[in-house]
Design goal:
Two copies of one chain form a homodimer. Chain A is α+β, with helices and mostly antiparallel strands. Helix content of chain A is 43%, strand content 20%. The interface between A and B is large, with 36 and 36 residues. The structure holds a DNA duplex.
DNA sequence: TTTAATAATGATAATCATTACTGATTACAA
DNA sequence: TTGTAATCAGTAATGATTATCATTATTAAA
């Protein structure tokens, strides 16, 4: 059984991820952390994200793009991903717990959870589009 | 405007993907196609999958594992992925079209669709577990 | 305090899925 | 036929993530 030791890098990483409302990629976190700790390496970011996920303090969000996103909010909630800028947003919709049971009854598989992801164009990108139209 | 020309490789790929109930990876499709066409290359599989997706005849399914899965059933439906073997199954549940509007009203973003993915342990893996217990 | 055990680090190499490139081949409209 | 553009196989490149390794830092016990 491996016990965690304190590390400044992990603490700063978790503080940063907890402080943002967005759902950053490992690379974005790396860039931010380097401002305070110029020697931190990308491997350390990935390694500590994995440890925090294992500890149940962080969740990984996969949205179909090439890079994963991370979230310090581990409570079950739904996301929206913008097809245009690939940013991930939280949605304030109630979680449908009953769906798991419904899926289990229908399929016979043991269902432990679900993830619901909406996609489309975010407000920021919609406005950018409108500005482009005007300039046309 | 680029027009598609006939290709045996693309036809066989689509026939194969249409014929299976599973949701194979590019590499699995490659392995199967090589039985008939030993010289086909993995790049050709990926290139034609992309063309078929663009043509709306195939959809890509991302389930949080390292590799993408593909599905010739492009109608909107939900999936189950096994945490154990990573296989992807179709679910026969009715699609909740109303969710898009609900998410749009709540967030203000333009919502064009959603994907709902259940996870847990599939029947095949549950049985394998049971067999292990017996042998213990 | 020292010390000993071991977790964590930065740097870098390796991996793995996917994409891009290239020169040869093929489909197909004129 | 023939011109041309799509497609191919083979291979190199890419990009995200993971593994390795020698060194450093944390922690609990002496």
């Amino acid at each position: 059984m491996k016990t965690l030791k304190y590390s400044r890098q992990r603490e700063e990483l978790y503080d940063l991820l907890s402080s943002v409302k967005t759902h950053p990629t490992a690379d974005w976190l790396y860039g931010e952390l380097r401002k305070k700790m110029p020697n931190i390496s990308l491997g350390t970011v990935y390694r500590n994200l994995a440890l925090l996920i294992e500890a149940g303090k962080v969740q990984k969000i996969t949205v179909g793009t090439s890079t994963d996103h991370f979230d310090a909010n581990t409570s079950n909630h739904y996301h929206f991903v913008c097809n245009c800028c690939e940013r991930v947003y939280d949605l304030d919709m109630e979680v449908m717990e009953n769906l798991n049971q419904e899926a289990e009854e229908q399929s016979g598989h043991k269902v432990t959870g679900h993830s619901l992801l909406f996609y489309g164009t975010c407000n920021a990108c919609k406005e950018k589009e409108n500005r482009k139209d005007v300039l046309q």
